[in-house]
Amino acid sequence: MDLLLLGGTKFLGKHIAETALRRGHRVTLFHRGLTNPGLFPDAEHITGDRDGGLDALAGRRWDAVVDTSGYVPRVVRQSARLLAERADHYTFISSVSVYADFSVLDIAEGAPLLSLEDPAEENVAAHYGALKASCEEEVRSAFGERALVIRPGLIVGPDDPTDRFTYWPWRFAQGGDVLVPGSHGRGIQFIDVRDLAEWTLRMTEARAGGDYNATQPAGNVTMDDLVQACRNVASVDSNPIWAEETFLHEHGAAEWTELPLWVSAKMNWPGFMAINVKRAVEAGLSFRPLSDTAMDTLVWCRRLRPEGEWKAGLDAEKERQLLRLLSSGK
C-alpha cells in the first residue's frame, strides 16, 4: 500500500510509520522537518507546511492517507480537499474530547458533539474538542464514505510527549511514599500508542469507514490496577498514599495536570473515563497487558525521554507538603 502520513515523526504518527514500514508498506511522510527529521530513512520524506504549503503533494497519488496532526478545520480542509482526488481513503485521528456532555456514561459514537460558536475560531488550547469535531466534518465533506474517523482517549506509552501517564511509573520508580488521588476502584481509560497504531493501520488497510471510539473498555482498569502495575515494574520499594478528593481540592492539587488521570467528582464528568468502545472492539481493537505498558514506558522514560521539566505530575516539594498535611490530619 502506498501510504501518506501527515506527520509521522512524533508519538502516534511515529508508531504508525514504524508499523507500516514493518508491514511492508511504501510510506511517505509529509512534515515540516522540525521533529525527529532523521527518523525512517527507508521512508520518503516530503518537507512542507500543512497551512498553505501543500504544493509538494500535488501531482502525486496514494492508496491511503493517515492524518495524525490535524487540529484546525481550515488547515484540515486544505489537505482533505487536495487529497480527495489523490487518495482512495483518509483516516483522521480525532479525540473523545469532541463529545458535548461527559456528565453521562457510556458515550458511543452517535452522541452529540461540541460545536464552535465562531467558525473562525482557531485557539486549540481553549477549544480543542470543538475544533477536532469541525476537523472531522471537513474530512467527511471531502471523502464521504471513504473517511475513517478514530476518536482515541488518552494515548500513552513510549514517546509520549505529555507525561500524563509516564509520571506514574516514573514516580513509583523513585520509591518512598507516593500521593495517589481518589479511590482505589476509580475507573480510568487510556490506550497504549502501539495498540492504537496497529489497529489504525489495520483499519486503514481494510479501507474501513465511519467513526470509532478507541480506548480501554470502561471498567477494564482502575487506578489501583495502575498503581500496582507501576509498583511491580519499579526496582525500589514504594508506598501509595491515597488521598480523598476533598483533601486534594482543599490544598490546591490540580487534577489531570499535577495528578494525571484524576478527573474528580467535582468536575461532573463521569463519562470522560467511561467511553463506549464496543464498536472498535468488534472491529478488532485489542489491548496489551497494563504491566507491559507500564514497564515499556518506564524503560523509555529512563533511556530516551527528552531532558527538561515535566509537563504533568506533582512537584516533589509540593508532594512532600501534601503528604505531611495528610499524615497530620489537616
Task: Write the topology of this structure.
Layout: E1 2-6, H1 11-22, E2 26-31, E3 44-47, E4 64-67, H2 73-83, E5 90-93, H3 124-143, E6 147-152, E7 155-156, H4 167-173, E8 176-181, E9 187-188, E10 191-192, H5 193-205, E11 210-214, E12 221-222, H6 223-233, E13 238-243, H7 245-250, H8 278-282, H9 290-303, H10 316-328
Parallel strand pairs: 1-2, 1-4, 2-3, 4-5, 5-6, 6-11, 7-10, 8-13
Antiparallel strand pairs: 9-12
Helix pairs in contact: 1-5, 2-3, 4-6, 4-9, 6-9
Descriptive key words:
UDP-galactose 4-epimerase, domain 1; alpha/beta; about 325 residues; Rossmann fold
Distance between the termini: 62 Å
The averaged pLDDT comes out at 96
Strand order of the largest sheet: 3-2-1-4-5-6-11
Oligomer: single chain
Fold-level CATH name of the largest domain? Rossmann fold
Overall 3D shape = globular
Sheet with the most strands, sense and barrel status: 7 strands, parallel
Pfam family, one: Epimerase
InterPro entries: Epimerase_deHydtase, Lipid_A_modif_metabolic_enz, NAD(P)-bd_dom_sf
Domain NAD-dependent epimerase/dehydratase: 86-213
Protein name: 2'-hydroxyisoflavone reductase
